Amino acid sequence: MAVTQKAQPATTKGKSFKKKESQESALAGRERKREAKRKGLKPGNRQAAENANQKKGTSGQAKDPRVGSRKPVALVVEKPANVAKPQTKPAQDPLKLAAEQEKKRLRALEQEMEAIENDERLNLLLDKLDGGETLVAADQVWLDAQLERHQQLANALGIEDDDEDEPSTPEDLLQRFIDDDFDPSELDPDYKK
Q1: Quick one: pLDDT at residue 22?
Q2: What Pfam families does the record tag this protein with (predicted)?
């Protein structure tokens, strides 16, 4: 069997014709393609932008493109007319200095005493002692040192311990009440004897 090919009819219906370009449109297309390939700014764009800004509106001084301070610098060193002397503190009275130093020392002692009184470990150990518990030897040594330092600070600050003054028996309390010169008229002016 022999296969024969059919001859194609010669019609122009299905064919598309290529449009002829003019020389100018071909050049314009190539130029667009070349521009699309390029990335970034044109060379020399930085100076061109500065020149454009100067032309637009900045009248007066031309902007210097160099970086740095625009403060003028004297090339010749001139001696100043009035030399500023360093300010010295006026001499203070030695009594005032001693009083200030004593205040500072007392403030430091008060801060140390406050730190000891607010120490959590010390408070915890004192609570254990009040509860009747026994302490480890290291804790007992530390507690004794803290209490001794607290007593030294109290003596240095002139704080007296009120626990020693309290009477222990009811007779002592009664005698203290009798010995006290209490005048009720000091508190209440309407009180009559």
Answers
A1: 86
A2: YihI
